[in-house]
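Hi again,

Forgot to attach this to my earlier email, sorry! This is the prediction with adenosine-5'-triphosphate bound. I've pasted everything inline since the attachment limit keeps bouncing my files.
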Amino acid sequence: MTMICLGIESTAHTFGAAVCDGSGKMLSNEKDTYKPKAGWGLVPMDARKHHEEVASHVMLKAIGSAGVNEDDIDIIAFSQGPGLPPCLHAGLNFSVDLARRLRKPLMGVNHCVAHIEIGRLMTKLEDPVTLYVSGANTQVIAHVAGRYRVFGETQDIGIGNALDKFGREAGFEFPHGPKIEEKAKGGKWIGLPYVVKGMDLSFSGIVTDATRKLKNGESLRDVCFSLQETMFAMVTEVIERALAHTGKGEVLLTGGVAANKRLAEMVGTMCRERGARSSVVPWEYCMDNAAMIAWTGVLAHRAGQKPLDLQNAEILSRWRTDQVETPWIQRP
Ligand code: ATP
Ligand code: FE2
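Structure tokens for the complex follow:
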């Protein structure tokens, strides 16, 4: 049997555990997501408590549904950062204890890099420009000169949080992205600020203006439509320039907002016009998940990256994508 890796994810809302093998076959992918009290956002200490409470259960479920025993695990990988420190600590403590008990190597994985690696595995894209669009994140990333580098990103809120903020104002239920997508169908363009600065983006002013237009009597449908068209056109522009800069021919869409069909359509159209390919990561693997951590742990371990010293293992809550070594990618 090939190598078996247990992955642990705990950077924000989701505590996840997953098992994969050395060929990238996912044997299980379990999670339990913290839900804030009605009307609240994520409270980091509450999320930590949630993660601590569910950790063992989720891990045992992952092992059980993979059909393996604890003894079959060869390596453990956990999401070391970036993320919210209390949430990361829950994952670190759990993973260190487990690695001690099972006497197995522990790999520290970067959450953002893991989103890309599982995306490459699932879509078979080899060397894409990645759009990572979740609640908190909006980044355009490509692997250049030995590292994943961020070519453009939001200067304020992530695109998912922007949609959620507008959705709250419009009285939708959380999560708001899918409701806005539904509502936008058949809408017409009413014009909203378009804010691209160099390769960076800003969304909070657009949400303010959209909310104002809604309160001033514009139709909800038209505002939802215009909000999507504007924000998605902005990210599409930045992706296109990243393709031009890097000379790459593939685009990978991941993160919760990548579920949006209109976004995939706009990026897809841009790609077709340039002769590039685009692909969206399947839903289960584009949300925060532990499968991506397990797989990236396999890649790192196989490439000879050293496991963490259990005595001194720490979280890296501000671990930047371009600080991550990627010895598993060998390109000129
Ligand atoms: P992170 O901490 O990585 O930013 P998160 O938990 O905030 O993660 P995800 O779980 O990746 O984010 O995604 C959730 C976001 O995706 C929410 O903001 C939600 O509104 C948005 N979303 C989900 N489905 C859609 C959709 N169909 N269209 C647009 N946005 C969507
Ligand atoms: Fe994420």
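The two ends are 33 Å apart (CA to CA). The mean pLDDT is 96.

That should be everything now.

G.
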